[in-house]
Amino acid sequence: MNLSAIRVVLVATTHAGNMGATARAMKNMGLKQLFLVNPKHALPHPDATARASGADDILQTAQTVANLEEALTGCSLVLGTSARDRQIPWPILDPKEAANLSIETTQQQQQVALVFGREHAGLTNEELQRCDYHVHIPADDSFSSLNVAAAVQVLTYELRMAWLQAQKQPTKMQKQETTLQQNNLPCTHEELELFYQHLEKTLIAVNFLDPNRPRHLMTRLRRLYNRAQITKLEMNILRGILTETLKSTQNNQ
Ligand SMILES: C[S@@+](CC[C@H](N)C(=O)[O-])C[C@H]1O[C@@H](n2cnc3c(N)ncnc32)[C@H](O)[C@@H]1O
């Protein structure tokens, strides 16, 4: 299962910047193979480099070919993207379905092509008929045509999600998740004992607790806080309050 087995094919791109933005979208999502079918501008091009924003390696290794057939050589699944509702009766996939099918195909060591059309005219009917499936991004009907590099981003994002899920890798930021999980853990017995010592000291300092006549206050408070099942994050808050309270009593002396 390999994202490198999935190629992005741009057909007859007229704006060099779109090739760069496509390279950036691909690199963000871990794809490497870019095919350019008869582009208007040859690479390197300053607009492409600027929009690639560091994805220069994708542009440098991009293969420029004369026609779609050449770009599809070796592929066993070809997905053609289209903004238009066409008359050709063809199996249509949404981006998530397209991504899942692509990842399944790469699991069988096969190559996949995602084909994107011209900025002004999309893919021709002949080109679309060369594809196994059509992929439509369900944009708003009144304005359904995305910039070609934006369409690449949508499809490659879904590919990455499908790939991560197939590999049982997390799709959420690991670091945040770990911190969140840590904060939600219940605090330990030792942490609670330190808290009770801190609380007692603070209550004495603010004259709420008379150490000579404690009247079971700490026992009652222990029962209350034990019931609350305090998490590590909540314990930090409580300890912070006690620290500040003690500080202010010391400042007032
Ligand atoms: C600006 S669009 C082309 C619009 C063109 N007027 C047409 O009707 O096809 C350029 C390319 O972006 C992709 N694209 C844009 N919007 C899309 C959508 N809603 N679904 C799938 N692909 C889309 C397709 O590859 C399309 O050929």
UniProtKB/TrEMBL annotation:
CDD domains the record matches: SpoU-like_TrmJ (cd18093)
Alphabetically ordered keywords of this record: Cytoplasm, Methyltransferase, S-adenosyl-L-methionine, Transferase, tRNA processing
One record GO biological process: tRNA nucleoside ribose methylation
UniProt-listed Pfam families: SpoU_methylase
Molecular function terms, GO-annotated: RNA binding; tRNA (cytidine(32)/uridine(32)-2'-O)-methyltransferase activity
Alphabetized Gene3D superfamilies for the sequence: 1.10.8.590, 3.40.1280.10
Compartments (UniProt record): Cytoplasm
A GO cellular component annotation in the UniProt record: cytosol
Enzyme class per UniProt: transferase
Annotated ranges, domain tRNA/rRNA methyltransferase SpoU type: 6-157
Enzyme Commission number, as recorded: 2.1.1.200
Catalysed reactions, semicolon-separated: uridine(32) in tRNA + S-adenosyl-L-methionine = 2'-O-methyluridine(32) in tRNA + S-adenosyl-L-homocysteine + H(+); cytidine(32) in tRNA + S-adenosyl-L-methionine = 2'-O-methylcytidine(32) in tRNA + S-adenosyl-L-homocysteine + H(+)
Main location: cytoplasm
NCBIfam families per the UniProt record, alphabetical: PRK15114.1 (NF011694), rRNA_methyl_1 (TIGR00050)
Assembly and interaction partners: Homodimer.
Function: Catalyzes the formation of 2'O-methylated cytidine (Cm32) or 2'O-methylated uridine (Um32) at position 32 in tRNA.
Family from the record: Belongs to the class IV-like SAM-binding methyltransferase superfamily. RNA methyltransferase TrmH family.
Name by which UniProt lists this protein: tRNA (cytidine/uridine-2'-O-)-methyltransferase TrmJ
